[in-house]
Write a structure and sequence with these properties.
This protein is an alpha+beta fold. The chain contains 14 helices and 29 strands. 23% of the residues lie in helices and 26% in strands.
Length: 668
């Protein structure tokens, strides 16, 4: 797969063969800077949005990008006598080649734009703090949005993969990537701008950016110009309506109290009918009382008919810290302004309806962490331990209808590219396995007395030159019953349970054969990050002899099911002979194909034979009787395999007749 490299661009030369002379410093006036900010506001906001860390969350990242950009307008006295250096060449200090949205017509010699861009870059890097992938110190004040959550439109798997890759860079590394691929600057100019903006090591930042890998056929400039990174074209959703209503009631109650106090000084009085109608109920007070948290006996899971979070005992060294537990409950019920709240899609917000179950409270990875379960959601609260700095964080994920497999392990903390897990009391052993190398032995880990085990390397952190991944670390958990299960961290509290085989009867990935079947699909798991994925099943559904005796290709479908039911993602992968990784040929969201309700699947792809001839290939699962192609390429096959010569770049609409007599459309 293609990779985006930061190679310095050669300087343009005049017809005489000499480099054009660089103009001297250009003066900047307030009106010029203001005009540049207004004219190129979307481009500057996009730049700030790319540099800010993804850990802020989509909504806060958008508002922070707008706030930093609006604060970039200098005061008139700050521009008194200010001058900015002229460009080194036609592509240097200006907006560059105009690859980003809103950048058309930006002059390379626009001193006003160069001035405000430098200020945006400086303020954004300052907000990133140490420049790492952690949380940023976002500015306070305007802009503020009440009652709505704003976030960019979701992109495809390529945009998601790029955002994930950028989240692993430092703030300066993301800035270097944006300057080269969004602003179109050469490496020398980008280094100078980074240094001027306060980056500690601009060379190292460019080196970080050079290591970002992209999927085959993807272009960095096009991806950064997509709606995924556009913080000005937004979607709106309501905030938590229940919590907002509670806040309004609390405000009304507070206002009534102030009114009563005022009446005491002015001689006014209120009758009982005029007193505030809302008073927190006893149930609500009990739900936030750490003394009423529910727990079970340490051996309750041994005799339980169903093993899930309801039979987890309370563990950890801080289960008796009432102050910490109280702060965690209050943050859950009513997060403060500085509390970072995140929830997987489909997870309801709002506080507990009654006293929740305490699962774990302890210190790990420099933070004090509390884990609750209320029957519907798993809730994690984290705050900096001791005199540490950092805002509290609250993470929620749906966990209703959970079973023994789903409640076996929780990702309790992530630091420095590693994951710390908390295991169920019925887990006997834990090991790390590289899904990309199925024959390699697992690496056993020691479980601490409080149930934690670490450090596991986050999967997919070592990109391959072809844009895939060289490793994909998974967690192998063996229970007291001797059954081994495999899990993959996809960025949520609950790692995804990996299975293999027919959708009607998937099996565990617990031997060499099942791991070998999964290995080509390992890198496709990146598409499930942050989606609230519950389980992922990979099924090799067809083998196809290739034309011209070029070997045998294999087809597989990978289905990602979520905790909320909707939001599933199905990928059809084509595995060419001699290639260790599968290539995604088609994908569909919320499709029944390759699932328990519709186990059959049909997909196609273009393939180039050794002779140079292009073919349209297609394959269906065992329930497919015949395949038909139309719209561009017309043909039919009386079997579940299809191969037809076709011009390069051809498209076709595929459909199939099932053995049962029904029909099936091609995936994607």
């Amino acid at each position: 797969m293609d990779s985006a490299k930061l190679a310095p661009r050669s300087s343009r030369r005049s017809r005489s063969g000499t480099a054009p002379s660089s103009p001297g410093p250009a003066p900047v006036g307030f009106a010029q800077a203001e005009a540049a900010l207004v004219e190129h506001y979307p481009r500057l906001v996009r730049l700030a949005h790319v540099v800010l860390p993804a850990s802020l969350g989509r909504a806060r990242r958008v508002l922070a990008a707008h706030a930093l950009t609006q604060r970039a307008l200098p005061r008139p006295r700050e521009l008194a006598g200010a001058r900015v250096p002229g460009p080194r060449g036609e592509e240097a200090a200006g907006a560059g080649s105009g690859t980003g949205r809103g950048g058309a017509g930006v002059s390379a010699r626009d001193a006003g734009y160069a001035c405000v861009r430098g200020r945006v870059l400086r303020e954004t890097l300052r907000a990133c703090g140490d420049g790492g992938p952690g949380k940023a110190r976002v500015p306070s004040g305007l802009p503020r949005v009440w009652g709505l959550r704003l976030f960019p439109r979701a992109g495809g798997t390529e945009e998601l993969a790029l955002d994930q890759a950028l989240s692993r860079l430092s703030g300066a590394g993301r800035a270097a990537y944006a300057l080269v691929h969004l602003e179109g600057l050469d490496a020398e100019t980008a280094r100078a701008l980074l240094t001027e903006a306060g980056a500690a090591d601009a060379g190292a930042a460019l080196g970080e950016a050079a290591g970002v890998e992209l999927p085959a056929g993807a272009h960095a400039a096009a991806l950064l110009a997509s709606p995924e990174f556009d913080a000005c074209s937004l979607q709106a959703r309501p905030t938590d309506l229940v919590r907002r209503r509670q806040g309004v009631r609390a405000f009304g109650a507070g206002a009534a109290v102030l009114l009563v106090c005022g009446a005491a000084f002015t001689g006014w009085s209120l009758t009982r009918s005029e007193e505030p109608a809302y008073v927190p109920s006893a149930t609500e007070r009990e739900a936030l009382d750490p003394a009423r948290l529910t727990t079970v006996a340490p051996d309750a899971w041994e005799t339980a008919t169903r093993r899930d979070f309801s039979v987890w005992p309370a563990r950890g060294g801080l289960v008796s810290d009432r102050a910490l537990l109280g702060r965690a409950l209050r943050a859950w019920d009513h997060p403060g302004r500085r509390t970072h709240v995140s929830a997987t899609p489909g997870t309801p917000l709002g506080g507990p309806a009654g006293p929740p179950r305490l699962l774990w409270a302890g210190h790990t990875a420099g933070a004090d962490i509390v884990l609750f379960y209320d029957g519907l959601r798993l809730v994690r609260y984290a705050e900096a331990a001791g005199d540490g700095f950092g805002d509290p964080a609250l993470d929620l994920v749906r966990a209703d209808g959970i079973d023994e497999a789903g409640a076996a392990v929780v990702a309790i903390a992530r630091t420095d590219g590693n994951v710390r897990y908390l295991t169920a009391p019925w887990v006997k052993s834990v090991a790390q396995r590289d899904l990309r190398v199925p024959q390699r032995a697992s690496t056993p880990f020691t479980t601490e007395r409080d149930g934690t085990v670490w450090p596991f390397q986050q999967p997919g952190r070592t990109p391959a030159p072809d844009g895939g991944c060289t490793t994909w670390n998974t967690v192998q958990v063996t229970g007291v019953d001797g059954h081994a299960r495999l899990y993959s961290d996809l960025g949520d509290l609950l790692p995804a349970h990996l299975t293999t085989g027919s959708p009607t009867a998937p099996g565990e990935v617990d031997d060499l054969a099942s791991r070998t079947a999964w290995a080509p699909s390992a890198c496709s798991l990146v598409a499930g990050q942050g989606r609230g994925v519950r389980a992922v099943n990979s099924w090799s559904y067809a083998s196809q002899p290739l034309p011209e005796g070029a070997g045998t290709a294999r087809w597989a479908c990978t289905r990602m099911d979520t905790w909320r039911g909707g939001g599933t993602l199905t990928l059809a992968e084509y595995r060419a002979p001699g290639h260790p990784l599968g290539a995604v040929a088609a994908q569909a969201a919320d499709s029944a194909a390759c699932g328990p309700r519709q186990p059959d699947v049909l997909a196609g792809a273009m393939w180039k034979a050794p002779s140079g001839t292009w073919y349209v290939l297609a394959a269906g699962s065992g329930g497919v009787a015949s395949i038909t192609a139309r719209d561009g390429i017309r043909g039919a096959s009386p079997t579940r395999l299809f191969a037809l010569p076709a011009p390069k770049g051809s498209t076709a609409t595929l459909s199939a007749t099932l053995v049962s007599g029904g029909t099936l459309d091609g995936l994607g």
